[in-house]
Amino acid sequence: MKIIVAGGDGFCGWPTALYLSKQGHDVAILDNLVRRKIDNELHSNSVTPIATLEERVNKWKELTGKEIKTFVGDLNHHDFLTQVFTQFKPDAFVHFAEQRSAPYSMIDREHAVYTQTNNVMGNLNVLYAIKELAPDCHLIKLGTMGEYGTPNIDIEEGYIEIEHKGRKDTLPYPKQPGSFYHLSKVHDSHNIQFACKIWGIRATDLNQGIVYGLHTEETKQDPVLNNRLDYDGVYGTALNRFINQAAIEHDLTVYGSGKQTRAFLNIEDTVRCVEIAAENPAEPGEFRVFNQFTEWFSVKELADKVQKVAKEEGIDVSIDNMENPRVEAEDHYYSAVNTKLRDLGLEPHLLTDEVIKDMLQTVIDHKDRVIKDNVLPSVTWK
Ligand code: UPG
């Protein structure tokens, strides 16, 4: 299959591009490299040193003989996107190319507007490109479990059957996102669903949980293929942050009570889920939603696990229940369905002490790169 991985230079996109290439697909990366520029804006970095995109794909070719073509440019430049579609003629378009940090979107008006313009308009351009240039191309779009929020009922996969005043219908599951970033994904979902309906496009929305981990079989093959690992208060996500904090003997930053519960998956499952979606495309006109996660944990449970593994490695860290910089429910019901990807063959890599230990070791190897000023959260919702 000819597959474009948009956002293929990023934390999820890069390992996905390598994995799909290894599986024999003809992969092209489309990326505007903005994530690297945002590191400069935030005076931050990846704990793991990362090579340039050019070095990365050259090394992959040297090791495997497989070529990954690169298109450096922006989804919001329609002429560029037109060229990419005309030249590459994709069968599937995997769309990771969005601003993905909730705190970044909450910095101020400018960052909220950037996030929503970049994400919503970029995605709309992709929808038009598919309609006009590759109508059979399957859009595999990264959504988020954060679209649903934390309702007091079970979270279904995209749709819910509702009975109202004696009548029944299956409707999109209600959305209660918790940041301007998460809202951008809700807006995307609506636009995609509408495009499927009016133009007959085929699309899968992958409502992904929080991704932890770093390495995959492919990124481990050479240091030049390293994946990035974020730890700062803006781009670092819960578990990865706690592991980084343990490595530098910093208190684990649990926001509030830590009872807030979220869905999680290992990066090794992210790449497989995308493959499953690509190999089992949605029907023309179908807007399909998969909940892409394998387990859920409260933030406190994660901190406890990291604290325990760190202790076994001789590192003593405390858990700091700091004031929550976000506006979010801390005490809530959480139960979400995730059967569709499992039914199509996903075999989860679960969160074991071994997984935490492995990551901890990698971070310890690079801990001199951690910029300590960036560890505490700097963005508040209010
Ligand atoms: N949290 C802490 N301490 C920290 C960091 C986070 O308690 O140091 C809490 C936070 O308050 C929240 C939860 O952990 O309740 C999850 O936050 P985080 O790990 O930052 O994830 P999200 O903000 O939900 O976003 C990530 C990705 C996003 C993706 C989403 C999937 O950045 O792109 O859509 O996970 O759920």
Automatic annotation (TrEMBL):
Top-level taxon of the source organism: Bacteria
Domain NAD-dependent epimerase/dehydratase: from-to ranges: 3-291
SUPFAM superfamilies recorded: NAD(P)-binding Rossmann-fold domains (SSF51735)
Residue ranges the record marks as coiled coil: none
CDD domains registered for this protein in UniProt: SQD1_like_SDR_e
InterPro entries reported for this sequence: Epimerase_deHydtase (IPR001509), NAD(P)-bd_dom_sf (IPR036291)
Protein family per UniProt: Belongs to the NAD(P)-dependent epimerase/dehydratase family.
PANTHER family in the cross-refs: DTDP-D-GLUCOSE 4,6-DEHYDRATASE-RELATED
Listed name of the protein: UDP-sulfoquinovose synthase
Species this protein is from: Salimicrobium album
